[in-house]
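2 proteins. here.
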Amino acid sequence: MFEDLIKEMNRLNGQSVSVPIETDEKGYIDKQCPAEDCEFIFKVHEEDWTNIFKDEAVWCPLCRHEAPADQWFTIEQVEHVKTEALAIVKGKIDNAIRSDAQKFNQRQTRNSFISMSMTVKGGINRTFAIPAKAAELMRLEIQCEKCHARFAVIGSAYFCPACGHNSVTQTFADSLRKIKAKKDSIEIVRNALTESMSKDEAELTCRSLLETCISDGVVAFQKYCEGMYARFGTAPFNAFQRLEQGNNIWFEALQKGYSDWLTNDELVELKILFQKRHILAHNEGIVDSQYITKSGDISYKEGQRIVVSEKNIDALISSLEKLGSGIKAACDNA
């Protein structure tokens, strides 16, 4: 009586269900890092996913977790596929039962003393999959300088998902962007903490945030210079945290130094900011004679504590961006 249902169940045994995944309006598809402690969501261009990415390995742009290409579906995509697969199976089973019911009713003899009929109610008739929708566009679009794969993220990315390449220039740009975002958020943080805690705690926290901006900038510049200098050799440890030493290293390699990319006033201010970073890291920000000698900053006396302003951070970001661009252009032409 249930011939079609049995046939359909046999066909479903081991059968796979294909569920399309939509691209966004720019042609990107959503991916998610399978590492449980990361689960970073990003996008890759569909054409590059087909033509550049390899089945055996994909890398997370944030943590560089490595896994085969079939492990990068987003949690939402997986849930959507499960829902669609269940709907399709239910639809096929429902249609098979309806077909059996129709055949059973056609076989019944009309004028018989006892008549039987089969009615199927409810059920899901859909046997096709609805595509998984794409998430909203991501603002930061990146193209790998090594393999040219295109991908997009929210926030920051340090590695190419197609080849795992760590872009020194991209990482440096992201670091400076994060410093600017931190500086620009100071007033929001101050207002929020003032309402929930106290003015004193809000001021301490905001002051600390500004001071860490200097440290973040110096470290980002050091890492950038180390990466760019790798083609020439290995620089001494932390050499690029010291402006004079770093300048000499680049001049020897490129016949160009920081004065080729910054004005004298910018160099003077950058020297002070680098020394402020040093005194914050090694002397709790308390001015000593070495700070005054090395920075040339005579606005302080020994025993005072340095102050970091938002203007200082703007100047730091501006100078580091100019140095980064100058170094890259000189290295490309070397």
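next one coming up
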Amino acid sequence: MTDLFERHRSLLDGALHALSTRGHWSPFPEAPSPKVYGETAQAEGQAAVQALTGRDYPLRQPGERGRVATERSPYGVDLGIRYPECDAQSLVDAARAAEPAWQALGPRGRTGVLLEALQRIHRRSFEIAHAVMLTTGQGTMMAFQAGGPHAQDRALEAIAVAWKAMADVPEQAVWEKPQGKNPPVVLNKRFEVVGRGVALVIGCATFPTWNTYPGLFAALATGNPVIVKPHPHAVLPAALSVSVLRDVLTEQGMDPNLVTLAVSAGTQLAQDLATHPAVASIDFTGGNAFGRWLQAHAPQARLYAEMAGVNLVVIESTDAYAGMLRNLALSLSLYSGQMCTTTQNLLVPAAGIDTDQGHKSFEQVGADLAAAIDQLLAEPKVAFTVLGALGSPQTVERVEQAAGVGRTVRASHRLVHPDYPLAEVRTPALRALDVDDAAIYEQECFGPVSYLVAVPSALAARDLVERSVRAHGAMTLGLYSTDAAFVDHMVAAARRAKVALSINLTQGVMVNQSAGFSDLHATGGNPAANASYTTLAFVADRFVVVQRRW
């Protein structure tokens, strides 16, 4: 095992340095270039996924009761992949049986195995990306980047932070206390990092690798066996990742049931696993209803949850009006707003804003933003790449219901995908509301729907932001302002509400993007998330230190 650690030591050192400096760094190229990944890599990845469709997925686990196919592709592709449906108790028993050998491997050995597995996952980036695209509705570019290299960055972050936390614990010490003229009291001490127990990682339908990898790799690195419960509509990306981990474990003489896949069409299996006394931690990304159920019914487990929130942008003024509009247009359009970081509410003073192009009324800001969205999506190839497809019928229903609220700034339109005619592709809807319409805009409307809210003043917008984030949670907050004093007001409000703030983004970075090794995704300080991912606290809480002395 030490050989694997040394083999990948430079990768780990690079991650540790990047985490300490928080600059730009990634060992996994985000451009799907044939020059980087090979001329045939994309075709081979797609063929590998195609070869799995309509068949039993090649995975054997304890407690299998039958096979189940649960995935529904937003692109209308019939996947028909049948996964093992296993008994909850059998999965837990298998995890606990695999735990002692994994524990005995120690931090160094575990880190080496996981780095090897991550490198192999990276080599299958196109295969996993195609699986992400078909199961989530993401566009091809986002599926590759977010489902592949960016997700791998987050896995490496978790491994590196875990290594750092564990490496800070010395393995042994000699304690010698002087006793004056008498011989000193001498104790030999050993300190061992011990996982808390079985970890359950519950995935989401929209980002099945990006949101799953941090908890999965953090739990494994710190000595815990893991049961991965993917969303029923996005199983394949998780299954491929689990299979790679199991292959590496087997090659290293370890029990592959250290990592298992729990697949079911309903919620009963997830509930049975979550409430099992042996499950010591739960990572969950998804809706509030099940998140709150976990909070109420799984008190024995530490819960790391990312749930629904209402993200906001305050537009007070700008000295780059055109750049602001282009940035916001892409931000609202990307993956049809199906990101936990996408802005829903844009707060604009009712009297309008000052810009480098002169004063703009509230109505003009809305019209210009709608025009920027139109311009972005005018080229069909760009539109389908940016928008992807809506992931569920519920999202389609929300878009249609939103057409009946407020005033139309930009109506949503259905586009017919040239390659996937059954896909539900909708352009963003933009509705104008008054500040008194809080019953509408303070509820999350997941999907391509945003509200342009007329507020009495910039300071009223600041106060609304703070109230909203405290009450409903948010993953992101954006601000456009040329007023240094108002920027300071917003910085203070974001600090009090504990939400990440992006200021005057007008170029190639959007408020809903999170860069690996630099940005800290979520703060863990508001209702949208109770953990700040890939921080020391997120990782170190997954293990304890047991000492012995003699």
